[in-house]
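Below is a filled-in request sheet from our internal design queue. Each sheet records the structural input a requester submitted and the sequence that came back. We keep these sheets so that new team members can see what a complete request looks like end to end.

REQUESTER: design group, bay 2
PRIORITY: normal
MODE: inverse folding
CHAIN LENGTH: 188
BACKBONE (tokenized):
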């Protein structure tokens, strides 16, 4: 939970840049413990999905939201094995991708991402930046610049914006995060 933040201001800012409106279909990957869904509900968003591998994180979020949890679609799944039955306009991931240290896991993530978005959709992906930690919660991570992440995503993607955050963990440690806003297109 070192990545936890009560106010996901950078994510919200990039969702605004992507042109998100109250009826935009958004999936928050790894969002079980995140407060992003709370903020989006507060803003009047109506087509929200939260995906997380951890049933406990999803259960905690549902309890936190109370009756508002009924207004969210909940998916318990491993993003590297998930096969979407629908497509979203925006994919949001703060702190999942950098945990994928094996090339085959990153490839599976990309496949899920590409199959989950409408053409012209956007992805907001936040990872540890180039000066961020090399381990988090006892696990190895991969650090990225926006250009590094764009290269990982492939030629069907373009970089539409980026932000850097010096995130202070609940334990007071400062960690560099890189947020990228990417637009999903098609290979020429």
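RETURNED SEQUENCE:
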């Amino acid at each position: 939970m070192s990545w936890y933040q009560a106010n996901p201001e950078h994510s919200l800012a990039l969702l605004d840049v992507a042109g998100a409106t109250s009826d935009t279909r958004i999936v928050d990957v790894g969002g079980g413990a995140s407060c992003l869904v709370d903020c989006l509900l507060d803003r009047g968003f109506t087509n929200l999905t939260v995906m997380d591998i951890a049933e406990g994180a999803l259960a905690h979020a549902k309890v936190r939201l109370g009756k508002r949890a009924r207004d969210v679609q909940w998916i318990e799944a491993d993003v590297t094995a998930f096969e979407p039955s629908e497509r979203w306009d925006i994919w949001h991931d703060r702190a999942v991708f950098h945990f994928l240290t094996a090339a085959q896991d990153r490839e599976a993530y990309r496949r899920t991402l590409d199959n989950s978005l409408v053409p012209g959709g956007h992805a907001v992906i936040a990872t540890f930046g180039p000066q961020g930690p090399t381990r988090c919660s006892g696990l190895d991570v991969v650090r990225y610049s926006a250009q590094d992440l764009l290269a990982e995503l492939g030629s069907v993607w373009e970089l539409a914006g980026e932000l850097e955050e010096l995130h202070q963990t609940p334990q007071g440690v400062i960690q560099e995060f890189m947020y990228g806003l990417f637009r999903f297109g098609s290979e020429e």
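SHEET NOTES:
- The chain has a mean pLDDT of 93.
- The chain has five helices and nine strands.
FILED BY: M.R.
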